[in-house]
Specification:
Number of strands: 0
Helix content: 55-70%
Distance between the termini: 55 Å
Order of helices and strands: HHHHHHHHHHH
Shape: flat
Largest sheet: none
Low-confidence stretches: none
Strand content: under 5%
Length: 223
């Protein structure tokens, strides 16, 4: 454990938690690639070398930040719900809400080769909900993985969306009509009035609805 240095007058003491807190604050306005140890040190009024007394590498810092984000996923409300479908819906909403709040941290999971213990804590309520639905063993873990992929895939798609390209969607589709087969042109023309805008909240709920119906359809018959 690093030995905290005595802070200069008026300067808060440097600590593991304070470094992570400051990194999260910066990520509200920065892309992940912009969060360098130098920039973080400037925000903390210290030096990059001082940060390495608490984290051996930038990757270790990112792992701590990602762990803090995952721990902040609010899942307490699930225990008050008896229906497994509603539990899964609440789980999905909680994960999305937290990840959208700290969008840059989604990429951190791709940097670190390790799964933080906090993620298994978040996965436990998902497993309990699926057990309530009647799943166990391999079917349980396969369904949990499938649902997690659906939730995180939807979040990643939303985060990758370019608002400018969405605005151009209708014009580009209209310009493409003359290059399409008559059948395809007719289908695209029918949806032209609805292109250019989308409700991400509604699309997420629709995605979860489809996933829940699929899970329900694949459940084993009652004993």
């Amino acid at each position: 454990m690093p030995v905290p240095a005595r802070p200069a007058r008026g300067r808060p003491l440097l600590s593991h938690d304070r470094i992570v807190d400051t990194a999260l604050e910066l990520l509200h306005g920065l892309a992940l690639k912009e969060l360098t140890m130098r920039r973080l040190a400037q925000a903390l009024d210290t030096t990059p070398a001082a940060l390495y007394g608490y984290f051996r590498s930038q990757e270790e810092l990112f792992a701590a930040v990602a762990t803090r984000v995952v721990r902040g996923i609010e899942l307490g409300a699930l225990e008050e719900v008896a229906d497994w479908r509603e539990r899964l819906r609440l789980w999905a909403r909680a994960v999305r809400s937290r990840q959208l709040e700290f969008a840059s941290t989604v990429a951190m999971a791709q940097i670190s080769p390790h799964i933080p213990a906090s993620w298994f804590e978040v996965t436990a309520p998902l497993l309990r909900a699926l057990e309530m639905a009647g799943l166990s063993g391999k079917a349980l873990i396969d369904t949990a993985r499938c649902f997690s992929r659906i939730v995180y895939g939807s979040i990643l798609t939303e985060l990758a969306q370019d608002p400018y390209l969405l605005q151009c969607e209708r014009a580009e589709a209209g310009a493409a009509l003359e290059h399409l087969t008559p059948s395809a042109a007719g289908q695209v023309a029918a949806i032209l009035p609805y292109l250019g805008v989308q409700d991400n909240d509604a699309l997420f709920e629709m995605t979860i609805d489809c996933a829940l119906r699929g899970i329900a359809a694949g459940l084993p018959p009652p004993a």
